[in-house]
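[Protein data]
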Amino acid sequence: MERRGIMLRAGLCVSILLNSGFGVLCQTVPALKMDQALITFQNQLTEEAHVYYTSDYCYECVKQLLVSVKPINSSRSVIISTKFTLTMQVETKTRNTTLCKWSQTYVEGGHYLVNIKISGVHSEPSCDHILQKAPHSVYLPLLVAALLLLSLSLVFVAAPYIYRRRDTSKFIRTICCRSPQYTVDNSEPPPDSDKPKSTRLQSLDTFRGFSLTIMVFVNYGGGGYWFFQHAPWNGLTVADLVMPWFVFIIGTSVVLAVSSMQRRGVGRWQLIRKVTWRTVVLLLLGFCFLNYSPRDGPLSWSWLRVPGVLQRLGFTYLVLSLLQTFWGLIPVPLRTKPFQDLTLYWPQWLIIVLLETVWLCLTFLLPVPNCPTGYLGAGGIGDNGLYTNCTGGAAGLIDRWMFGDNMFRYPTCKEMYQTTQPFDPEGVLGTINSVLMGFLGMQAGKIIIFYKGSNVAILGRFLAWAVLLGSSAAILTKCTRDAGFIPVNKNLWSLSYVTCMGSFSFLLLGAMYFVIDVKGWWRGRPFIFPGMNSILVYVGHSLLGFYFPFSWDMRLRDSHWELLFMNLWGTALWVLVSYGLYRTQFFLKI
């Protein structure tokens, strides 16, 4: 079969052909896989019909030829993708207009017949749709999984909560609004549950573990559902949420940890040595382990990808830690000024503003050969096919100049937009905005420290930041996916993407802070366990995720049932592993 964008062309069914009053039918039916449907086009016209398609998710894409059907009761069948809505149109060479055009979201496993004919009433061509075989219930596996997870949540969360609240005095103390007790160093493991209550900020560990758990699930495949995979270019899916959350948490943790060590008398150069060591370890893990490919042997430069997730996290951590080490005053919870968590750190803000100015200037002013200045599109067949080799604009140009072939060659836009240029989602320009995302997390850490003891002030400032950043994202995008000033784009880590994800991060951390650290309604389980061993879980699932028992060779490839179960099973195993490590008090730190 020949690939055509998001389509898989089945070609002409050349097995035994039968003549009937309905036309030429194909006796054999090709086997369908997940997210595929079969369409048979029956042409009753006296001239050859050409069927074209575009995906509604593909922005201003050039129409692509799907199939040509010979005249006079001929038929051809094609297998199509059911992930996104498709717009199809039928044309002939002798007619200057489109004979018929329609948009439809086809459903997995369905068999459809499109009868192209001349209507007897108006003598005009028409395309009649007939459902020949009912499709699958695509979202039934997801519904069953959601109900099972909800049941487990009730067992493992609600039951222990009720058990802990048997003591009336404990219940009364819990419902009173108290300030949380914690230390600012979120790098040490909490004591066991039967020991004195931990002073650790548990909402941050839970947020980290929640992000990591979703990251493991989507990296394993997300059950094959498109919204658990990265967006083709502009827009947001569940998979696009987790890494910015992780970067945000890094920023918050840096403020809490560095401030704690400074209060304990740790010197500046000792902090720098510690930060440098962690950065080097993260970079080496990204270079030498997560980029491994067996085709050329270990550490072969021909396949080594220079950018990467851990490389970006390591560089972001380095910049944020240096900002806090050199220009981060030791916070003291004295509410003498209304905006002291902002004004006391003006050197940090100056550096961040300069970095963002560099991003804006390079993105919108750097000349890109044979491409419009400031281009943010995917290239390929997008934008009416005018900028085929302009994928990513300035960001792609800089990465290709710096890394050459040592970068990601299968970007998320490659299949839908039929791009030919490599593009790395962890490139140089995006790393600048990754620092900005982490810096927003630093603001959350400063708020927690400066307004310790006043939960209303902490939650109020979290909400204010969420509203400010969310409004900024709405303005930059014009509340659209593709038509804004700066669209939300995870591949580019665009400014609107950072402001949008910053808003979500403040809201989610604030909600967890209120539920876990203020009210004590939830202990953060089970997400708190992977949150305290994040490096081990991330590296482990990347290296071992495609080996048994985390995954296996699938037998049921025509629906989401087995893949969803396998991905949930693999994710659950890593949560269990992290729980076992928690019980043995083993915490991997670098």
About this structure: The chain has a mean pLDDT of 84.
